[in-house]
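= Tokenised fold =
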Amino acid sequence: MFMQYLNAFWVGGLICALAQILIDKTKITPARILTLLVVLGVVLGGLGLYDYVEKIGGAGATVPIIGFGNSLAKGVIKGIKEDGFLGIFTGGTAATAGGIAASIFFGCIIAAVFTPKEKG
């Protein structure tokens, strides 16, 4: 049990540290880094390579945004197997619907509870 926590911590930390290095050391905008990580997750998931990272890191590999990309890839692959060509368009959304719905729901709750302030 302790090793699962430790592996999740170092794998998730490594992914986040690499993203932070990109933010600090390059002129790439955070939005592009976010997109890069999602696309990297899709590519690694589509090739079946991210499964090894998930096996080692558990939640440390699935929670960061790169894990979202992997979930999209898995959903599309499953959608194609079940629905053919139409699965390309529906599989990724079906696989990630719970996470998307939760983020919208909690985002609305936070927006209703807190007052936004301007950066200054």
